[in-house]
Amino acid sequence: MNFYESLKQALESLKTNKLRSILTMVGIIMGVFSVVTIMALGSAAESYINVQFEKIGANIITIQYKSDAAERKNWLVLEDMETIVDGTPEVKNIAAFIQRGGDLRVESKTKKAIVYGISSQYKNFSPIEMAEGRFINEFDILSRSKVIIVDENFAQKYFKRTDIIGRIIELKVSSGSKIKVKVVGVMKGGDDLFSSIANNENFPTFVYMPITTVQNIYYNYKKLPSIMVSVQQKEQLKEIGERIVNVLELHKGKGDLYVARNSVEEQKIFSSVLGVISAVLLVIAVITLIVGGIGIVNILLVSVTERIREIGIRKALGAQKKDIVLQFITESVIMTASSGLIGILMGIGAGNIIANQIKIPPMVEYKTIVLAFTGSIILGLIFGVYPAKKAADLDPIESLRYE
Q1: CA distances to 116, 137, 208, 212, 363 from 221, in Å
Q2: How many CB atoms lie within 10 A of CB 26?
Q3: Is the pLDDT of residue 164 over 60?
Q4: CA 153 to chain centre
Q5: I need a surface site. Which of 110, 123, 278, 350 has the fewest CB within 10 A?
Q6: What are the residues whose beta carbons fall under 8 Å from the beta carbon of 167, sequence distance 6 or more?
Q7: What pTM does this model have?
């Protein structure tokens, strides 16, 4: 018996038990679907993270506290930025920020806000684009100007237009005090994941103000969570970071206070965490595939039992063991390969839909499709072997007597 005849008989056998075949295939379909979806979303998320890091540059160093160095005398403060610049000539840009909460009031409408107090060079560390007006400058910092930057979605919702430069907004802080701030800039909104979350009705809007102004109105709060530095020499990020830490600790008169993290390390950490999550989910999907494969073994064993007499007749007519093995393995491979194709198509569709919903670029790699389909075929070969061997080993005389 050649392969074509085995294929024809396998298809006829599967067609005879359509419902059973379809139900058996569901397990493989869901397994392949899960694998393709997870790998597609994992690739898309990693690509998105890489794009975000590229936007802010790969030459950034962030100085942060060590876990036991948060005493008041060890705080990072604005004056430390001058210490870093004076002691580290490689510094290109330097910035800091603090984050506080508040309420913005426009006429009778109120919106929760996350207020970022920023230094003048903060824009060099964030992919911010202006739709109208200007960003925070050094004069705003020095004079503690009561100015604010809002995004265009906020402007559209509360002013019905984006050109609101010069408009006055009331900011209410946690202490209950209220101040009037003037809009000097409107940021462009985005269509990525972060922007879609930020535009949610129940999510606070993000606004920017001079860091000195925010420190002043929020109880004269001086502590900085970190200081960000960009340098020209991308290849020496680690060495320059260590030098900045040494300069700061020498200025404070105490060692082992701070740690320097660079953007390359942070990108690796993000990718590593994402890889672990994807791997865990992938293991779960593979378990689903294995369960589906066991289902195929069960169904083929039932099929062997139902077709014992047929197998006996075929052997009596001259069919060899390899012919019986080929037929049953062909049935198994047809089911898993068909399930794999359906699962791949469903996975690609689901991956694109989910990626679009969470505003990240969809991505399905060619190797994922090849791997999923090849894996489906291999699965069919593996799980079809035992039922095929059991069918091939049947005694033709006993098989003909079977009722």
Answers
A1: 13, 20, 16, 9, 44
A2: 14
A3: yes
A4: 25
A5: 110
A6: 159, 182, 183
A7: 0.65
Angle between helix 321-357 and 18-56 (nearest 10)? 40
237-283 per-position pLDDT tens digit: 888 899 999 999 898 888 888 988 887 777 777 777 777 877 887 78
Distance in angstroms (rounded) separating the CA atoms of residues 362 and 41: 7
**What is the pLDDT averaged over residues 214-240?**
84
Could you give the CA distance from residue 120 to residue 64 in angstroms, rounded to a whole number?
A: 20
Contact call for residues 293 and 379 (beta carbons, < 8 A): yes
Centre a 10 Å sphere on the Cβ of residue 276 and count the other Cβ atoms it contains. 10
Q: Quick check: 204 and 150 in contact, CB under 8 A?
A: no
Say what percent of the chain tops pLDDT 70.
Answer: 83
Task: Please give the angle made by the CA atoms of 48, 50 and 52, to the nearest 5 degrees.
Answer: 70
pLDDT of residue 116: 94
Q: Is the pLDDT score of 59 beyond 70? A: yes
Three-state secondary structure string covering the chain = CCHHHHHHHHHHHHHHCHHHHHHHHHHHHHHHHHHHHHHHHHHHHHHHHHHHHHHHCCCEEEEEECCCCCCHHHCECHHHHHHHHHHCCCEEEEEEEEEEEEEEEECCEEEEEEEEEECCCHHHHCCCCEEEECCCCHHHHHHCCCEEEEEHHHHHHHHCCCCCCCCEEEEEECCCCEEEEEEEEEECCCCCHHHHHHCCCCCCEEEEEEHHHHHHHCCCCCCECEEEEEECCHHHHHHHHHHHHHHHHHHHCCCCCEEEEEHHHHHHHHHHHHHHHHHHHHHHHHHHHHHHHHHHHHHHHHHHHHCHHHHHHHHHCCCCHHHHHHHHHHHHHHHHHHHHHHHHHHHHHHHHHHHHHCCCCCCCCHHHHHHHHHHHHHHHHHHHHHHHHHHHCCCHHHHHHCC
Q: Give 337 or 301, the one with higher predicted confidence.
A: 337
- What does R_g of the chain's alpha carbons equal in angstroms? 32
For residue 355, pLDDT beyond 90? no
| Size (the chain), residues | 403
Rounded to whole angstroms, the Cα distance separating 133 from 148 reads 11
Helix 18-56 × helix 3-16 angle, to 10°: 100
Quote the pLDDT of residue 334. 82
